[in-house]
Amino acid sequence: MGIYLDTIEQLIAGVEAAGLEVMVIYHRDFDIQQKNDNSPLTEADMAAHHALLALLEHETPGVPVLSEESGEIPFATRRCWSRYWLVDPLDGTREFIAGNGEFTLNLALVEEGVPVFGIVHAPALPGGAVTWWGQVGQGAFRREGDGAGKGEGKHEQPIRVRVLPDPDREPWQVVGSRRNGRAAFDVFCQALPAHTTQTIGSSLKFCLIAEGQADLYPRLAPTSEWDTAAAQAIVTAAGGQVLEAETLQPLRCNRKESLLNPDFIACGQRDARWEVALAKALEADPDSR
Ligand SMILES: Nc1ncnc2c1ncn2[C@@H]1O[C@H](COP(=O)(O)O)[C@@H](OP(=O)(O)O)[C@H]1O
Ligand SMILES: [Mg+2]
């Protein structure tokens, strides 16, 4: 079913506007609270949450919305949703607090458990704001600018994953979290052919794969469905895949009571050499993961 182009333009404009609200808070002092799971929550998470909920209600009235900052919605209710919005208003809250710019606003449309459309907006990158978006089967795109004229003027570029290079000629590029799952990431990398690594916060890791700047993102540490759905749609639309680590089947949403994802790997292309490395990392002592 997906979503029409004119609605996509309105949604991107709305996400950029929410990004501008977030940036106002980023540049001033802000409150930080602790959530029940001990993760931090800032004023910016809530400002983006409210802005994105209002946007979705306006653009697609009647389509249910699940946001990281919504109250819990029982599985008995959600399992009846054939189509819904899954929102992470501010992914990389710890990076937002650290002030390193590696945070994103995330909007995914999920149909029958499959993320089919996604927007990831990074308002605070060193070169200025960037938005990635993609619709499965119709391509993925990258545009620069914050929606208010800053950094604008460059055309939207179609993006595509890159062909996995011969590592003897060009090392594979592997991306990982700054903070989570470092030990398992290292076990995985040790079993790979020639490669370089980069750590970066939030769903930006997937966007690097979608635009062919990275080849692999192994995630052998917890995430929730809102952390991955928008970026999975973009990676898939760009020709890549996001696969459960154990089964190498595409990651799916809304299949169970818990919203936690299994371990997964995002890739531009499958290759037996990294699949062996992944199996080794999964076999490693769980305490080191
Ligand atoms: N123990 C845990 N359980 C569930 N999700 C976790 C987690 N530790 C980290 N995360 C998720 O990892 C995200 C950060 O990813 P990364 O480490 O790649 O930057 C967080 O996003 P939020 O900032 O939206 O909370 C959070 O959802
Ligand atoms: Mg998140």
UniProtKB/TrEMBL annotation:
The keyword Membrane applies. Its EC number is 3.1.3.7. It is found in: Cell inner membrane. The keyword Metal-binding applies. Substrate binds at E68, L90, D91, G92, T93, D227. InterPro entries: CysQ (IPR006240), CysQ/Inositol_MonoPase (IPR050725), Inositol_monophosphatase-like (IPR000760), Inositol_monophosphatase_CS (IPR020550). It is an enzyme of class 3 (hydrolase). Mg(2+) 2 binds at D88, L90, D91, D227. Mg(2+) 1 binds at E68, D88, L90, D91, D227. It is a peripheral membrane protein. Gene3D superfamilies: 3.40.190.80, Fructose-1,6-Bisphosphatase, subunit A, domain 1. One of its GO terms (biological process) is 3'-phosphoadenosine 5'-phosphosulfate metabolic process. It comes from the Bacteria. It holds the Pfam family Inositol_P. It catalyses: adenosine 3',5'-bisphosphate + H2O = AMP + phosphate. One of its GO terms (cellular component) is plasma membrane. Its main location: membrane. Keywords: Cell inner membrane, Cell membrane, Hydrolase, Magnesium, Membrane, Metal-binding. Its cofactor is Mg(2+). GO terms for molecular function: 3'(2'),5'-bisphosphate nucleotidase activity; magnesium ion binding. Belongs to the inositol monophosphatase superfamily. CysQ family. PANTHER family: 3'(2'),5'-BISPHOSPHATE NUCLEOTIDASE 1. Converts adenosine-3',5'-bisphosphate (PAP) to AMP. This is 3'(2'),5'-bisphosphate nucleotidase CysQ.
